[in-house]
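Case study 2.
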Amino acid sequence: MTYGNADPGEGKGVKKGTLASSVYQQLREDLLRGALETETKLRVEWVVSRYGAGASPVREALNRLAAEGLLGRHDQRGFFLMPVSAAELEELTRTRCWLEERALRESIAHRTAEWEEQLVLALHRLARAERRLPEDPSTNNPEWEKLHRAFHRALIAACRSHWLIGFCEQLSDQASRYRLIAQNTPGTGRDDLGEHRIIAERALDGDADGAVEALLNHYRLTAAMCMERLAQGHDPRAGGGRTARSRK
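Prediction:
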């Protein structure tokens, strides 16, 4: 395959911004669902080949993901997937708990009938979705992932701060990398749906203290499961194997 300066679609009425957005969305989804190996370099040529866009929109998409913290970037050395670590997970979980406690308390304090309806609907949709793919029980269902994010977003939607919601969603993106580890922890017997239902019920009852307690316990349990797997040397994108080394 030959890579030139021209982008596919240029000259055919397709804008570079549209191509960059398409690559960004596809690559972001792959990053969040763990479809790419940890710490692997993402060469522009490889991304061009995988996602079918030219070098210019690919670089734009990679730079955007790096600005969001979903990719790392070395000057003159390109982009790479961010490694996972126990230290980062501890800081991430602590910060996420701080921010989402404030967001959830504000959301409950300023709840409306519409917010309640949207939260009930989000929980209902999550409950109806299969978490794992029937054909591959070791892999999360992308539809469940989408509905899971929608539920947590609905919880804090009434907090009256788009800045706070944005920060919480950015932390959620980072946390998704670690949930890939926790989902494969054997013998946990975890009731994910039950945890989400308790959070929602307490929020709908106006029990801010109870809802916050349930939400933070939910996050901390996930973090504890991840810590256990990290201590065993497991990597979320190496098929459950030992932590992968960077490819040079």
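The two ends are 22 Å apart (CA to CA).
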